[in-house]
Design a protein that fits this description.
With 492 residues, this protein is an alpha+beta fold. The chain folds into four domains: 281 residues, Anaerobic Ribonucleotide-triphosphate Reductase Large Chain; 27 residues, no CATH class; 99 residues, Enolase-like, domain 1 (2-Layer Sandwich); 45 residues, no CATH class. It contains 16 helices and 15 strands. A three-stranded antiparallel beta sheet has the order 2-1-5, with no helix packed on it. Strand 9 and strand 10 form a beta hairpin. It is globular.
């Protein structure tokens, strides 16, 4: 085996870290009729990992008898056991012994005696420093897709969605969307609610009480409370000797306080080594996106305590539980007017997006500065909260700064273009299409050239993001080139 440097080789061979894991926890729980977000569901995950940890660590000690222990067996601290379960089993989850066996108990106790001998002799006499993990098996788990059961979940994650799209990027950076529907639902749900299940993205909460058993079992990632996400990670981590890959999914409506509470809960856990939080829709491009519409997003906000105040057929507001106006969800598809303009310091791009009634709904402004992003974001939130574009330009004009007034002027010029694209709006605004930027096509057309590992606009000379085509959006952070617009990274 080849190693980049000697230090890496010594580390790998010296500790021989191994990571046995599994995927499909969510699908297994559904087939067993056990809710993912229940104590029994967490106990099941705990016991699956207990079996893996016990068997693999036992074999690591047995293998060391004829293959020799790991090279650094005298450097490590024998008192630091691989997983919490060895000297502190979880009392609640141990009560669910229906998945255990006498054979497992025998192997567990034998391995525990090996660990105690190591501590006594101050030397590690096993082949591997650790043997288990839960890897991020997102793509790998697709190998387990079958016509019979379909998506059974990656790693210990709940099923992301029972009807979703996956964005796939080819080696030529061509993006395509592949649609998935969970076959497990088709097999286990009663015939009379299958169509309802798909249309509502697996949400059965509004159905009659006779379907309660299915409501509890078929829960997707965004419909599970973050506390239940963290408690499942803790249950499995209790028996795992390496860190676990787990995403704490949060809905788009999650607040800063929710995120803070999630981190604090994980911090207080005796076993969790780290967590990853993702709020749905926080990136312009995300690998998985559920098949929901703007209307469903609005309905979800209403369920979560928001109130829709209708002023007229074309004007309404979303109010939170404190009576404050909140911005409406961003539409998936919008048409827009793009303007390029120059200031003293840089080139700027302004995109004014609007809905089917030609009402401006978003201002996207980019030139590589925080100032441009701040103006764009605040203007967009104001527009989706019901503030008129005229009021926004009026406030920009009041600022004693040339850049703000220039942006205001460009917005007004973009508004003048709207009357000339009536036909485009009427014909295309309701079409569901999402044509990805194709760098190879742009090169063939002569719009973009590849030079010194960068893509350049042949007309302006600006560097272009190879993923989304945005100009002047690339920046170097932490030694890696990434795009502020679509979050593409050259290191990924």
């Amino acid at each position: 085996m080849m190693y980049p440097i000697d230090e890496v080789k010594k580390g790998v061979l010296g500790f021989r870290s191994v990571g046995l894991g599994f995927y499909g926890l969510a699908g297994s729980l559904i087939r067993l009729g056990i809710p993912y977000n229940s104590k029994k569901g967490r106990a099941f995950g705990y016991n699956i990992m207990k079996i893996l940890e016990t068997g693999s660590l036992f074999e690591s000690y047995e293998a060391a008898k004829y293959l020799t222990p790991m090279m650094f067996n005298k450097i490590g601290d024998p008192s630091i056991v691989p997983a919490e379960i060895w000297f502190n089993p979880h009392e609640e989850y141990e009560k669910f012994n229906e998945w255990g066996s006498k054979e497992l108990d025998i192997i567990f106790n034998k391995t525990l005696s090996y660990l105690k001998d190591d501590i006594l002799n101050k030397v590690i006499n096993r082949r591997n420093i650790n043997t288990t993990t839960v890897a991020p098996t997102g793509t790998t788990s697709q190998l387990g897709f079958t016509k019979q059961w379909g998506d059974v979940g990656s790693g210990i994650e709940p099923i992301f969605s029972f009807h979703y799209e996956r964005t796939i990027v080819s080696k030529n950076r061509e993006k395509s969307k592949v649609e998935y529907t969970a076959e497990i639902a088709d097999r286990l749900l009663p015939e009379e609610i299958k169509d309802y299940f798909k249309e509502h993205n697996g949400d059965l909460s509004e159905l009659d009480s006779k379907y309660d058993v299915y409501k509890d079992i078929f829960v997707s990632a965004n419909n599970i409370d973050f506390n239940d996400h963290i408690e499942m990670q803790e249950a499995v981590q209790w028996c795992c000797s390496s860190a676990i890959s787990k995403t704490i999914n949060m809905p788009n409506s999650a607040t800063v306080e929710d995120v803070k509470n999630a981190y604090l809960k994980a911090l207080k856990s005796p076993v969790i080594k780290g967590i990853t939080i993702y709020r749905d829709g926080s990136l312009q491009t995300q690998v998985l996106s559920s098949k929901t519409s703007e209307k469903k997003d609005t309905e979800k906000k209403l369920k979560e305590g928001f109130k829709e105040e209708k002023i007229s057929d074309k004007l309404s507001f979303l109010l939170d539980d404190k009576g404050k106006i909140r911005s409406k969800p961003r539409a998936k598809h919008m048409l827009g007017v793009v303007r390029k303009f120059e200031t003293q310091k840089t080139k700027n791009y302004l995109t004014l997006s609007f809905d089917e009634d030609k009402n401006p709904t978003e201002v996207f402004l980019t030139n590589g500065s925080e100032k441009a992003e701040i103006i764009g974001r605040l203007s967009s939130i104001a527009l989706r909260a019901g503030v008129s574009i005229e009021e926004i330009t009026k406030q920009l004009d009041k600022i004693e700064h040339e850049y703000s007034r220039t942006v205001s002027s460009e917005i007004k010029k973009a508004l003048q273009v709207l009357d000339n694209i009536t036909v485009i709006v009427n014909e295309n605004i309701n079409q569901e299409r999402d044509e990805p930027f194709d760098i190879s096509v742009e090169i063939e057309k002569g719009n973009i050239i590849l030079k010194n590992s960068n893509y350049y606009d042949t007309k302006t000379g600006e560097i272009v993001c190879p993923n989304c085509g945005e100009r002047s959006s690339l920046e170097k952070t932490e030694g890696c080139i990434s795009c502020r617009s679509c979050s593409w990274s050259a290191c990924s």
